[in-house]
């Protein structure tokens, strides 16, 4: 039989990893060319990955919830070509030991080179569109539990001494035909980050399986033989000296608070991307915030009139405000720029011919920012159509990476959550974000008389490195005036 291994393809837009959400096939299933085999979650969207090979599923590399690097093995398929020579699972990035080579178990290092990646397959995988030259199809099955690793040794008996276990590990490491027994991509990445050759690490798991604590112990400074941990040394040092006796990984009681731990949720997928983006924004951007209360009564009246005239095509409030924002950016373009640092350490402000308008959208996967490309060329009705289309895609998890990136200015309507105002965090690498609060009845002075009006609050957070208070205040005041007198402003657009 000939086993072909398909690696996680390049997902585009600079993405280097993806979280494996669920398998769509199981070991032993028959797959066709371009049949979806797994659902993965990239930075902010979920996509199905098609397989470029046809045959029988031989092995699934990874479990649901794991994060895989681009180029790491994803699935091995028996293509049924028994006349061929068994192909090693090599490949991946050039230089050093690849993930495929680490996953290879029992393969002969002297074996011949593997066939080209395009032999018997359909070609390069394009996420969401299948692969060129292949026909989609094939019966999809319900996801099942991932199969066990292809090569595992029998569990070590509890009566074996530590010296015998060490000897067995040394014999395994010296065997020319066996690769390190490691199945977790997290363990591999941890070893790589700490500069360790995974083949030199002794595993304390069943059959010599290399676990995370084994890598941490191997990376810790070695203590002299027979030396005891000094008095007052941290408990982690003692654990590193005795990797065969692991400390509890999930204690029932939190040492800091004394409360029982109800659960642990890994920061992964969209939540991790949001955390990284927000941290970077706060760390790099010296932001300032200005805000103003606005009488939106006339804007609501205009919206009601448009809806009465044409209920199907009447733009929503967000589309009208977006149109006012674009008019303000045309007068104050510095708020839709980007600050870049060059190789020599100097900085420059990058200006753009137009605006890609981003808007914050809350989804089940977290907060995302779809981008309306060339928004400055659209009318209020055109903006309304794009807002609805991109919001639906984002909430369904079907928006592409291109549709979730590339914005130069962001509009955030946090009023839908019932809040009046907020100090928004700038969507890095942009330099400004405008927030809109809820519209409610409040007392307001009109022509010297107290009246009940529809009030909202606009807040602008801006990067003080590229914009001063005068420009920020001028932009905010222009948008506020447009909200208060929409008819006169729309006549000029």
TrEMBL record:
Cofactors, names only: (R)-lipoate
- A Pfam family that this protein carries is Biotin_lipoyl
Q: What is its EC number?
A: 2.3.1.-
What positions does the domain Lipoyl-binding occupy?
3-78
Its GO CC terms? cytoplasm
- List where Low complexity composition bias occurs: 146-158, 222-244
The record's keywords, sorted A to Z, are:
Acyltransferase, Lipoyl, Pyruvate, Transferase
An annotated Gene Ontology molecular function: lipoic acid binding
Q: Which CDD domains is this protein grouped with? A: lipoyl_domain
Q: Where is this region: Disordered?
A: 76-158, 222-252
Q: Where is the Peripheral subunit-binding (PSBD) domain?
A: 182-219
Q: Which PANTHER family match?
A: DIHYDROLIPOAMIDE ACETYLTRANSFERASE COMPONENT OF PYRUVATE DEHYDROGENASE COMPLEX, LIPOAMIDE ACYLTRANSFERASE COMPONENT OF BRANCHED-CHAIN ALPHA-KETO ACID DEHYDROGENASE COMPLEX, MITOCHONDRIAL
Q: Which family does it belong to?
A: Belongs to the 2-oxoacid dehydrogenase family.
- Its recorded name reads Dihydrolipoamide acetyltransferase component of pyruvate dehydrogenase complex
Taxonomic placement: Bacteria, Bacillati, Actinomycetota, Actinomycetes, Micrococcales
